[in-house]
């Protein structure tokens, strides 16, 4: 059976991800929408997308659990964990996990994990400082692995060490290829389309790719339009499906 590989996701070390191809052999794309859980309208707009999407919920939202529980079966829910950024002007939220001793980091992670239930994985909200801190990320990944949760690194810094620590910690680590939008939606629909074109090229080249967006009207409108054509050429999945396939195939082992 054909084997697909990509350098955009890792399992237990720095060996490129290997995905067992489905019979149709289409490259795989996973779309993640961050920053949900603070407003019902944004959640409903994302939840209505007609193709599989991973919805990332900030754990401190008052209605985050209710929205997570209402997530469509075609989608997947993820915990969007606030992590310490390099620039303090970037507000990571009230439950941000800060760099510190192993016990401090572990308590911060466990505090966030306990805020919501019903998710399979975790990704970082901000986190440019913490994800580049080897000691802190070792504790984060060990804590997630102990609860059978995978980690999606949205790569808010090129200095992230999460993939390097996958083997040591026994964690399932995925890495996003790119952000699809930014600037609170001010970059516009054209920017989102260009990022999706680049994501398609990466998926075609590597076998799989992960794109991260936000619940901006422009982003969601472009995604809905894009998926109509993309589904014939790509297999659209959730990040949890990627993590499950990685576990089955042993990441190229």
UniProtKB/TrEMBL annotation:
InterPro entries: Divergent_DAC, Glyco_hydro/deAcase_b/a-brl. Pfam families: Polysacc_deac_2 (PF04748). It comes from the Bacteria. SUPFAM superfamilies: Glycoside hydrolase/deacetylase. One of its GO terms (biological process) is carbohydrate metabolic process. PANTHER family: DIVERGENT POLYSACCHARIDE DEACETYLASE SUPERFAMILY (PTHR30105:SF2), UNCHARACTERIZED YIBQ-RELATED (PTHR30105). This is Divergent polysaccharide deacetylase family protein. It comes from Parvularcula maris.
